[in-house]
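Researcher: Go.
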Amino acid sequence: MRFETKRLGDLVENLDSRRVPVASASRRTGPYPYYGASGVVDHVADYLFEGDHLLLAEDGENLRTRALPIAFLASGKFWVNNHAHVLRGREGVADTRYLSYALACVDVSGYLSGSAQPKLSQASMNEIRLRIPSLHEQRSIVEVLGALDDKSDANQKIISSLEDLLRGVYRKYVAVGDASRAFLGDMVELNPNRRIDVEVAPWIPMQALPSPGMTISSINYAEPKGGVRFKNGDTVMARITPCLENGKTAYIACLKEGEVGFGSTEYIVMRSRKGYPSALSYFIATDPRFRSIAIQRMVGSSGRQRVKASDIENIPVSVTGDYSALMRFNELSERQISLMQSLSAESRTLASLRDTLLPALMSGELRVKDAEKQVEEVL
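Model: Structure:
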């Protein structure tokens, strides 16, 4: 396979001029994804773009850490703020999806400016060098890697559907914010004490926390320092602006037996008390009524507000059905969550294979036909 080295600016059509940032207070909720530097941060009532586009982070610490991809695809109808460059592969020259894979293999640190807040300006972005084969070969590579990503996307749609089903059942039995003698703290333990006795433990950075989700796409391991502790069955909720408003919350079910994970001091860990479904804490944490009350109780400067665990433990929460109904919800949620975790584990396996094949295909060390054989074995 023959490669040429080209400037990114010569490979793409740039649509940055069409971006429009909208403050969270001014957004109207709707069906269209609202993208920022690291992915979807909200859903809004209108859209700016339609079709397949490549979004490349313009600023943020993730440009250095790369805890999440810095380049990702957006499809359908969507909105983009001014923290992500909006690009399309130049017709007849570059495949948009291929560019997303190519950028995953490129070190962009030399193109960044700013110390406190890394920035990838449009001028610097244009100078990024990529090794590019012919358009036909680009599409052959995309077909192989895309098959893995498409299966992962299909898994995520099933997971989302199962979560929606459980949320509908939850609403039949639980009410938040109504006059009640019961409160969150009666059903949920907040920030339970746990110890980590190992040198390396599962770590979930803020960027990897879904908005929201009952599965986590990837797990990092690091030396445990500070922060909150959690284990399977816990719910982790971001408590700071803008993450609380954006719904960054995860149900933890991806750790190994006996493992204790850790995360930011800006998380609140919620664990259902004995006698209540373990998933109850997650559905309360993601209940719009609960989040609305929690947001109203945030304190601090306008740019850095947060809510404390002690500020939410007295939010009224009442069970409207009888105890046996709640236990039926528990049985249903356990079955569905088990299926979700199986699908999520499969997706992590597919992502691992993709990450192994990606640099080898991009460098030409691995032939497309050989990669196809490996993909066929797992699909």
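Model: The mean pLDDT is 92.
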